[in-house]
C-alpha cells in the first residue's frame, strides 16, 4: 500500500472496531479492503490482535510489567476515566495478606494460575482503546533526531515571542528544536518535501519532520505538491491529513480547530475520548471542531481568511481575494486596503499625477504630435504595463510593451478629456457621484471600485506581475461597463473594448447612459501576458462620454 492509503485504512479500521463509522466511511473501508490482498491481510492482522486482547488475560500481565506508571496508555486510560469509578478502585494494588502456614507434606493437585480479576476487567474494557492507540502511535508525529528539514524563505514585519529563537531569512529549520513562536508579522517556510506554508502571528508551532507540523495556536496556510501527499498538521485535539491540497488551519488556544480547503481535499480527524471523528473536506468548504461539544461542524468557507503570499519588497499581503484593478490605477497594489493613494495616469504621456486635471487634451492632444499616439510605459506602477491614446484608421494602435496591435481599433479624433483614474478620484475632484446619484444611473457601491476612462484612452495591465505575487497561472477577469450620465442634456455614445495580448475579447458599441450596466467575465489562460481596457468615442466625438469599468477584478484560479 502507498502511504496515503495506509493512513486512511488505519483510521477506518480503528473507527470500525469502535462502531463509529458513518455509512460513507463504511463504504470507503469496504472499497479499500476489496482493492488488494495486502489491505485485507493487514486488516485481518489488526482484527486478530483485537480479538486476542479481548479474550486473553495477557493484556493484564503486559500492564503489570510496565516499568513506569507514566506509560502513555495507562495514563491515557486513567486520565480519561475509562470504565466506572468502581473499576478504577478495583484496579488499585491490593494490600498484601499474611502468608498461611502449610503442612510439610501434602498431596496437592496441580495449582491453577491465579489471574487478577481487576486487571482482567481492565484489560477487557480497554482492548479497543489499545488497538486505537496502536494505530494512532503509527500515525502520530514521531520525535526523530534533530535534522534539517527546511528553510525560512521569507519574513515580513516579524516580532518573535519572548524567549523564542529568532530566525532570519535563509536560516535552516530543524526538527526537535524549540517551538517557532511568532507574536506579529508573517513568515514562509519551505520544507525539503516540497511543502511550503505561511504563518501569521501570533502563532506557535513545531516542525516535526518535512511532512508533519504540530500547531499549538495561530494560523497556517499550507501548499502541498503532488509528491508530498499525506502531509499532516496536528493540533492538541485533531489531525489534518492532506490528500493533495491547499488548505488553511486555524487553532485557538481554547482547543477549537478550523480547517478551510482551497483546493483538493483533506481528511480531518479529531480525538474524542478513545474514539475519533473523521470527515473528508472538499475544496471551497470549511469545518470546525468545537472542543466544548466534541463535534465537527460545517462553517462558512472564507476565501480571504489566511495569508497565502506576501512580498516584503512591495509591501503586499495577499489573502486569496480578488485583485482590484481600480486600486492599482490609483497607485495601490489591489490586494491590501483600497484607495490608499489617489494617483491618475495621463494616457498621452504615461505620467502619473496626484491630482486629476481637466481637459488636458488642450495641451497635449490639440497638436496631435506623433509621440502622442505611441504606447507609453508607466514606470512608477509595477502592475501597469502602460497607457495609450487609440487613433485607429491609418494609425497603428500598439497596446502593450511587446508590440501587440489593436487591429479592430476604430478611427478617432485622437483627443482625450482627462486622466485615467479610479472612481474615488473622480468623485473627490468633480463631485461627479452626486450628479450621477441624482440621475439615478450610478450604483453607490461602485464609487470606490471602478476605473474612469474617458474616451479616447487605453490602459494595459501586466498579468505576470500578479502571477509573481499570487503564484497563480490563470485568472478570471470580472467587470461591468456603464456610462454615467453627465450634467448635459445631450449624453454621448461610447465604445468599450477589452483585449488580451492585443486580441479582442469583449466590445460594447455605441453605449449610452440610458442603456445601464452590462456585466461580463473573461477567462485568461496561463500563456496570456497582458490585459487591456480601452474606450473610444462611439463615432460622434468624445463629449460627455463618462465611461466606467465598474468593479474590475482579477480572480486567481
UniProtKB/TrEMBL annotation:
Cite the Gene3D superfamilies for this sequence.
2.60.120.1440, NPCBM/NEW2 domain
Q: Which GO terms describe its molecular function?
A: sigma factor antagonist activity
Instruction: Give the keywords, sorted.
Output: Membrane, Transmembrane, Transmembrane helix
Keyword DNA damage attributed: no
Key word Magnesium present in the record? no
Q: Where are the transmembrane segments?
A: 120-139
Q: Which residues form the FecR protein domain?
A: 210-265
* One Pfam short name: FecR
The name this protein carries in UniProt is FecR protein
Source taxonomy: Bacteria, Pseudomonadati, Planctomycetota, Phycisphaerae, Sedimentisphaerales
Amino acid at each position: 500500500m502507498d502511504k496515503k492509503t495506509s493512513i486512511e485504512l488505519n483510521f477506518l479500521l480503528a473507527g470500525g472496531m469502535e462502531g463509529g463509522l458513518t455509512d460513507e466511511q463504511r463504504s470507503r473501508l469496504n472499497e479499500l479492503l476489496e482493492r488488494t490482498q495486502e489491505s485485507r491481510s493487514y486488516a485481518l492482522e489488526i482484527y486478530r490482535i483485537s480479538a486476542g486482547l479481548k479474550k486473553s488475560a495477557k493484556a493484564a500481565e503486559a500492564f503489570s510489567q510496565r516499568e513506569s506508571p507514566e506509560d502513555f496508555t495507562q495514563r491515557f486510560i486513567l486520565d480519561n476515566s475509562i470504565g466506572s469509578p468502581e473499576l478504577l478502585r478495583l484496579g488499585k494494588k491490593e494490600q498484601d495478606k499474611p502468608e498461611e502456614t502449610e503442612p510439610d507434606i501434602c498431596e496437592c493437585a496441580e495449582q491453577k494460575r491465579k489471574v487478577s480479576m481487576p486487571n482482567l476487567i481492565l484489560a477487557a474494557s480497554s482492548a479497543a482503546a489499545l488497538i486505537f492507540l496502536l494505530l494512532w502511535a503509527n500515525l502520530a508525529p514521531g520525535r526523530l533526531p534533530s535534522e534539517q528539514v527546511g528553510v525560512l524563505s521569507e519574513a515580513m514585519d516579524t516580532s518573535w515571542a519572548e524567549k523564542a529563537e529568532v530566525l532570519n531569512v535563509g536560516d535552516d529549520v530543524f526538527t526537535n528544536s524549540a517551538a517557532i513562536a511568532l507574536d506579529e508579522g508573517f513568515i514562509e517556510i519551505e520544507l525539503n518535501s516540497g511543502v511550503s506554508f505561511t504563518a501569521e502571528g501570533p502563532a506557535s508551532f513545531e516542525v516535526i519532520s518535512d511532512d508533519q507540523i504540530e500547531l499549538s495556536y495561530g494560523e497556517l496556510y499550507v501548499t502541498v505538491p503532488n509528491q508530498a501527499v499525506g502531509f499532516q498538521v496536528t493540533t492538541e485535539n485533531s489531525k489534518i491529513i492532506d490528500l493533495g491540497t491547499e488548505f488553511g488551519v486555524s487553532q485557538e488556544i481554547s482547543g477549537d480547530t478550523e480547517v478551510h480547503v482551497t483546493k483538493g481535499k483533506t481528511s480531518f480527524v479529531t480525538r474524542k475520548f478513545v474514539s475519533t471523528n473523521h470527515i473528508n473536506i472538499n475544496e471551497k468548504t470549511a469545518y470546525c471542531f468545537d472542543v466544548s461539544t466534541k463535534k465537527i461542524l460545517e462553517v462558512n468557507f472564507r476565501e480571504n481568511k489566511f495569508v497565502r503570499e506576501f512580498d516584503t519588497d512591495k509591501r503586499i499581503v495577499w489573502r486569496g481575494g480578488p485583485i482590484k484593478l481600480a486600486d492599482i490605477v490609483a497607485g495601490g497594489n489591489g490586494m491590501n486596503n483600497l484607495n490608499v493613494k489617489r494617483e491618475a495616469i495621463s494616457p498621452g504621456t504615461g505620467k502619473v499625477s496626484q491630482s486629476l486635471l481637466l481637459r488636458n487634451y488642450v495641451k497635449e492632444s490639440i497638436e496631435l504630435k506623433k509621440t502622442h499616439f505611441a504606447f507609453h510605459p508607466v514606470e512608477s506602477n509595477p502592475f501597469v504595463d502602460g497607457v495609450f491614446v487609440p487613433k485607429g484608421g491609418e494609425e497603428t494602435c500598439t497596446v502593450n510593451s511587446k508590440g501587440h496591435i489593436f487591429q479592430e481599433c476604430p478611427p478617432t479624433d485622437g483627443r482625450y478629456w482627462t486622466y485615467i483614474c479610479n472612481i474615488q478620484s473622480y468623485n473627490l475632484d468633480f463631485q461627479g457621484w452626486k450628479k450621477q446619484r441624482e440621475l439615478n444611473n450610478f450604483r453607490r457601491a461602485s464609487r470606490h471600485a471602478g476605473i474612469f476612462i474617458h474616451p479616447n484612452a487605453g490602459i494595459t495591465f501586466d498579468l505576470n506581475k500578479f502571477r509573481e505575487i499570487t503564484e497563480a497561472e490563470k485568472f478570471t477577469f470580472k467587470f461591468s461597463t456603464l456610462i454615467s450620465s453627465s450634467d448635459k442634456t445631450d449624453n454621448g455614445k461610447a465604445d468599450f473594448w477589452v483585449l488580451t495580448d492585443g486580441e479582442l475579447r469583449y466590445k460594447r458599441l455605441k453605449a449610452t447612459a440610458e442603456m445601464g450596466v452590462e456585466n461580463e467575465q473573461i477567462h485568461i489562460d496561463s500563456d496570456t501576458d497582458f490585459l487591456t481596457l480601452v474606450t473610444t468615442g462611439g463615432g460622434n466625438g468624445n463629449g460627455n462620454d463618462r465611461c466606467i469599468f465598474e468593479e474590475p477584478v482579477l480572480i486567481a484560479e
